[in-house]
Each structure stands twice: as C-alpha cells, then as structure tokens.
Amino acid sequence: MRIGLVGGTGRMGEGLALRWCPKHDVVIGSRDANKAASAAQGYVKEALEHYGRMDGSISGDENSRLVGYCDVVVLCIPYENAEPTLDSIAQNLRDNSIVVCPIVPMSKSKEGFIYLPMHEHKDSAAVMVSKRLKNARVVAALHTISDVKLRRFNEPIDTDVLVCADDKDALAVVSELLKEIRNLRPIYVGPLSLAYQVEGITPMLLNVARQNSLKNPSIRIA
Ligand SMILES: NC(=O)c1ccc[n+]([C@@H]2O[C@H](COP(=O)([O-])OP(=O)(O)OC[C@H]3O[C@@H](n4cnc5c(N)ncnc54)[C@H](OP(=O)(O)O)[C@@H]3O)[C@@H](O)[C@H]2O)c1
C-alpha cells in the first residue's frame, strides 16, 4: 500500500514512517519538496540500521502532489494551520481517498490543556476535515498515541487507539494498518460526528501527565 504522510517531516510523520516502512511504500510530505526528500533519506537510514532490510520504501514529495497517488493519506499537520494545507491538497486528492485525521485541536489555559472546539463552538478537527475534503473518506484515529512512543520503533506500543469513521471499508483498511503497529489495538467508537469525544481525550491525558508526573500516558479500554 502507498501511504502519504502530509506534514510527514514532523514528529508523528517520523514515527509512522518508521512503523509502516517494513511493509509499505511511505511518502513523506512537506510544503517543501527538498525538506521532504531529506527527511525521507534520514528515515531510510534509521530504518535500515534497525530492520536491516525493508520490503517497502520511504520517499519524499510535496504535500499537494503525494495526495494524487497515495492510497491512504495521514494528516500529520498542526490544527492551527490545517485549513490552508487542506485547501492546498483538495484539488489533487483522489476521489474516495482514505484520509486519516489524528489532529487534536487543543491549547493551554491557566487551568490546563483544553479542547478548543468545545470552547470556540466549532466542529471537531475530523468533521472540519471532512467538510473541506468533500471527496475523502475521513477516519479519525491516533490522537492518544505519543510521538515519543511511536518513534521508539523497536518497542511495542501497548495501547488502544479509538477510531471514528462513517465509511466501513475505510475503517477496515485503517484498522489493519493500525494493527501492524506492534501491540496497538484499534477500537471503533462510532461515526465521524463522535470524533470530538476522541480528540478531547488528548488534552485530558496531558493534564493527567502534568498533575501526576506521568510520562506519555495512553489509554487501554478494559
Ligand atoms: N506529536 C504527538 O505526540 C501527537 C499525538 C497525537 C496526535 N497528534 C496530532 O498529529 C498532528 C501532527 O503532530 P506533530 O507533533 O507531528 O506536528 P509537528 O511535528 O509540530 O508538525 C508536523 C509538520 O507540519 C508541518 N507544518 C508546520 N507548520 C505548518 C503550517 N503553518 N502549514 C502547513 N504545514 C505546517 C511541518 O512540515 P513542513 O514544514 O515540512 O511542511 C511539520 O514538520 C497534530 O495535529 C497533532 O495534534 C500529535
């Protein structure tokens, strides 16, 4: 499968590329093609040092180009600047593309981390994405995975990932990809309209971490 990581030069992008490259062709996206190529080169070096060989590959390209040839696109971009990026990829995005949205709209207040859409009476990030990318099948996932754990790619991730989606086929494809990350368990929550519940867990986890001196807490449904 060809997986495109929009904003893949950042922290989540690195972790996902290193987790998926043994089996898949991963394309690192950036606003700048040179930056994408150089990040991809670095990840290949890291992956080969660890895995010895890869059946997949890691390459780099501009965000707006890779969405035209990838099977699954993951939006590894900050919430604050997501809208212009979505507009820049909308035109080239293939019809019915599967778009994974891990975006967490949050900020820090005096009291602690807060979930922005609740305070600003806005859509969840996933619903905002589905309104901007009308030809995409959006799957909300990966919000509670710490990039630190994801990038320690020689270690399993013993955690659950809560998933929201409207399209059952897209959900199945993304769930299989998530299961390939060792010990990670995808759990379906419901349609995309419920994504606000899942996105809102991340600021809560960060508050838990801060108040209890915990490092990179995650969740398990028992
Ligand atoms: N980090 C985590 O642990 C974590 C966990 C769960 C969910 N998430 C979510 O995953 C998403 C990515 O997180 P991250 O930590 O990987 O982000 P990040 O490292 O801060 O940024 C990722 C990439 O976004 C691009 N970017 C930065 N500013 C931009 C702008 N103004 N316009 C367009 N692109 C811009 C950059 O790529 P170029 O400069 O190459 O274009 C950057 O490398 C976020 O929405 C976050 O809420 C993160």
From TrEMBL:
The Pyrroline-5-carboxylate reductase catalytic N-terminal domain, residue ranges: 2-100
Keywords, comma-separated and alphabetical: Oxidoreductase
Gene Ontology cellular component annotations, sorted alphabetically: plasma membrane
Protein name: F420-dependent NADP reductase
Broad enzyme group: oxidoreductase
Presence of the UniProt keyword Oxidoreductase in the record: yes
InterPro entries (UniProt xref): NAD(P)-bd_dom_sf, NpdG, P5C_Rdtase_cat_N, STEAP_metalloreductase
One Gene Ontology term from the biological process aspect of the record: NADPH regeneration
Gene Ontology molecular function: 8-hydroxy-5-deazaflavin:NADPH oxidoreductase activity; coenzyme F420 binding; cupric reductase (NADH) activity; ferric-chelate reductase (NADPH) activity; NADP binding; oxidoreductase activity, acting on NAD(P)H
EC number(s) on file: 1.5.1.40
Record NCBIfam families: npdG
Pfam families tied to this protein: F420_oxidored (PF03807)
